[in-house]
Description:
The complex is a heterodimer of chains A (about 220) and B (about 500).
Chain A: H1 5-31, H2 38-70, E1 78-81, H3 82-91, E2 98-102, E3 110-113, H4 116-134, E4 139-146, E5 149-155, H5 157-160, H6 185-195, E6 199-202, E7 210-215
Parallel strand pairs in A: 2-4
Antiparallel strand pairs in A: 1-3, 4-5, 5-7, 6-7
Chain B: E1 5-9, H1 13-25, E2 29-33, H2 36-45, E3 51-55, H3 63-73, E4 78-83, H4 88-96, E5 101-104, H5 112-143, H6 155-167, E6 174-177, H7 184-193, E7 202-206, H8 212-220, E8 221-222, E9 234-235, H9 237-240, E10 245-249, H10 256-268, E11 270-272, E12 279-281, E13 285-290, H11 294-300, H12 305-311, E14 314-317, H13 328-343, H14 352-360, H15 366-380, H16 383-400, H17 437-443, H18 455-477, H19 482-489, H20 493-503
Parallel strand pairs in B: 1-2, 1-3, 3-4, 4-5, 6-13, 6-14, 7-10, 10-13
Antiparallel strand pairs in B: 8-9, 11-12
Helix pairs in contact in B: 2-3, 10-12, 13-15, 16-17, 18-19, 18-20, 19-20
Amino acid sequence: MPVEPNDILHVLAHELRTPVGIAHGYVRLLLDDKLPQEADRRRALEQMQKALRRLSDLSQETTALASWYDEGCAGDSQCVDVGGLVDRIAGAAYEFPVTVQVTDIPEHATVRTPDPTILTHALISIVHATARELRGQPCTVLARVRGERLEMLTGPDHLLGTLGDGPTAADASPLGLERGGLGLALVHAAVILDAHHAERWTMNSSRQTVGVRLPLERHP
Amino acid sequence: MTPARLALVDDDQQFVEYLETLLKSRGYDVQPYSSGSDLLQSLHSDAPPDVVLLDVSMPGMDGLETLKAIRVAHPHVQVIMLSGGKATNTVVDAMRQGAFDYVVKPGDADGVGEAALESAIRNAVEKTVLSSEVARLRTQVGQDPEGSPFWGPGSAMRQVMAMVERVADSDVGVLLRGESGVGKEVIARELHRRSSRRSKPFVKVNAAALPSELLESELFGHERGAFTGAQAARIGKFEFANHGTLMLDEIGEMPAGLQAKLLHVLQDSEFTKLGSNRPVTVDVRIIAATNRDLDAMMRAGSFREDLYYRLQVIELHVPPLRERREEIPQLIEFFLVKYAERYGRPLRRPSDALREVLLNYGWPGNVRELENVIKRFVILQDEGLVMAELKRSRTNQESQAPGRVTAPVSAPAPMPPPEPIINPAPPPRPAAPVVEDEAEDTAVDPAVPSGPISLPELAREAAMKAERTAIQQALDKFRWNRRKAADYLGVSYKTLLNKMKECGISEQQA
Lengths: 220, 510
């Protein structure tokens, strides 16, 4: 199910609302003299600054998304080594504990992409969003080549076994994008993966497992 | 007034900090949590908050799942759902699952969202307060075994009641002395009812009912892990009775270690829970009661003198029933009406013979014993049984204390005359009333065996007789429709059939 403009607007509206609300709230507290302590007033200003930074990040993400729509899809594509791509995912810094297991990736397997960096970021965003759902439980990433696709399964270790059948499994559903606090990262990742003709899905109702399949340009 | 306690659950730390600042500036006590599971974990060990503000969209356990778990664990806690928008399905789901309200997170320039949230919180807090007040009043009504008290016309009780009238609306401690069953708890409740604390809790603790360690926990509460088995924090009776009255019954049984802690509370109005260093301040009026001779205990060193003088700012001696016999006729009438109404029995008054026995009996168990006798009389409607029971009690008393027919069988040793602190010394004890044997003998129910019989056996027989009568009446009333009779009697159909079999009731007999 491709990302629709409405999906993007929905997530954007949700993400905009919180920092704007926080900034308004602190302004009112200050104007109404509800924070008599100097330390509290200073803390309020710091929090307003954080909210503004969050808005600024969101603005940059929106710009990047717009650029992708304008140029990214149409850029010159190149072949990227799958092993290197997986290494970059494994080496990324995550806010929550993540273990990457790599199996069955033959040499010389490649994917075609107009922008290797953006593709890598998209896959990292998927891992990050899944790990965030687990809230401290270790998140495992299983990367492997199956048939003509690179398959990346993320979730708690004990659930990964159930992911083997991919989107044909009875409880699979489209990857939801409306996860608060992630900015547009997940939307952006979904748009990029769609442009690569990748499949993406989630596998249980608590959204703790996510699967992505990316077509290979060349497979031995 | 204690600020309302709010739990705020949202994974967005910036939003949590802002809302915490806002709500604290409005006087609330706010505890933030970054996930539903964090909140649920804390609910296992801490007292639940008054209201939970719960974000709908959270990683891991989302708002609706958390709401479900809260409703199961703490159905009385009010939950307000917070969301970035009002998705109809989510609102409907949340309200169906018992959310108190569903509010869009504040985010507008004019503060309309904040006002809506504050209004929802105020309403939820009000509901929590009202619910707990209703529960408390229900408990209090349920715990008040006496209902409306009855005060006899005798001069001894008139003096007691005059003193109750004078001291009720003050905060001074009162020490009630008197034998078991004279009505000390009734007096304590009356002191509370006539005081300005009447809308606050009346809490009774019996110091003799629990071992020392449990009594300390019962009175002062404990923190989680304070001792083996303390799996959750718990507030004690002192906190529960805050702004109200705490009756410490059988204070003479309180262990020495606890006497010291109690003295500290009486002096400083504060204490610490077991396993805690944090002092808790309370405002509680203490009414202590005892049937023990505290003066002798002080002399023997088993009761602290300083505690005694703290407790007995006002001391009231409630005289035994044998010293206020003029009240017996009216007490009989009072209990007859009370239990005839309660148990739906005809208001049958005792015969002259039984009345004579009742008036002359020693009443070692005091008003409580008289009440129980009248209760049995009303339920069983069997004079012979009551007469026989009184006769047996009297015989037992005589055999255990020759020459003292009035001495209670199981009552404590008689106290010396009380210190005349408030009360005048009680009138001299009247000569022991002697029950006329002839009068009793002529009224003995021929159905009751004249030989020895155990009290439990007698009680079983009496209960079965009462059940048989009630079942028979119900079956007659509903023309042997057993299902309707079971409903009427408040038992299951199966229980009724079993009881009929036990009592030997069958349709053929009818």
